[in-house]
Amino acid sequence: MRVKELQLYNFRNYEKQNVVFSEGVNLFVGNNGSGKTNLLEAIYFLSLAKSYKTNDINVIKHDSEFSRISAITQTKKRNLNLKIIISSKGKKTLVNNQEIRKLSDYIGTINVISFLPEDLMIIKGSPKDRRYFIDLAYGQIDRTYLNELSNYRALLKQRNELLKKLSDENNPDITLLDIITEQLSESIELIVSFRKSFVDKINLFLQKMYRFLSDKDTNFVFKYNPSVSSNIETTLKSKYRNDLYLKTTNLGPHRDDYEFLIDDLVVKDNSSQGEQRIMILALMLAIADIINDKVNERPIFLLDDVFSELDSKRQNKLIKYLLKLEAQAIITTTNLENIQEIILKESTIFRVQDNTIREEYRNE
Ligand SMILES: Nc1ncnc2c1ncn2[C@@H]1O[C@H](COP(=O)(O)OP(=O)(O)OP(=O)(O)O)[C@@H](O)[C@H]1O
Ligand SMILES: [Mg+2]
Fold first, then answer.
1. Whose CA is closest to atom 5 on ligand 1?
2. Residues 175 and 101 placed together within one structural domain of the fold
């Protein structure tokens, strides 16, 4: 999968910007605040129809009415013209100039895998951060999962509203609560099995990726901790009192968590910052392999400031790996000092400066 050409109009700091990417490694070099992350954000937006940072509306250039991201993308099957228009009224997604009204039909038209400084939150952050990340990663390759999640959310909302209502009553009639709990349990069972199989797949690649990047023989495992996974309906029904007391549903996929273990120790408390970056990177590369298995194509790699916490050995390992995959990678960095000459020759290099992107060297 590739993005061949990108056009930004009033997107973040770019008023009008055109970028023609090359097929392999694209390096964007610029000082702090020059607009490197904003460029990656635009490509991310193109794939997932949302920003990874903030509300959509923040991507609109200050004092502008709307933003437009247009791109020519290429998959093995076809070339596509993608367009997203973002305004205060909402967003519009178009494929080959035809509007796609349902976002879940648009998401995954092209796949990206991103590695951003804030991704450390997957280790350090809250369970919510981890769920969000996994849902997004998995959702872009499996629409049935996305649909089941939205079905679950709707049922959960209904159930919580009912709990609030019943908790105010002296002798609550739980007939309706039983029915919703049964429906919710079916949905939980599906989501838990989706998540389990995704995590199993991640672990097939994760260890290998981590050992390759870290040169260490340690056991690295990503673990899924569902809040409820067996006898779901019975368990939920046995917790009515607690749910009524707290006026909310206390078990289910919205309370699941994941954790990273290194030689059976919890990573969060036992690994250095740099090691954690390598772990996240290994996770991204593993997920990229899953995407490849699923859609038979490598996703586009978006790597933001990935070098800042990796030593030069690992920086070069990573780029060499990406070059070997023959995947398209879009990488930002403040400088090229540690990158080997032979890698630079194989990459296309852009300068980001004064709200403008200029091509400096093209490998063709
Ligand atoms: N909606 C917007 N309109 C105009 N400018 C914006 C908007 N949002 C962000 N900016 C500006 O874009 C600039 C570039 O931000 P960006 O995060 O892309 O920089 P960067 O090159 O990634 O920097 P760093 O190396 O520090 O990560 C910032 O100065 C920011 O103020
Ligand atoms: Mg940045």
1. 13
2. no
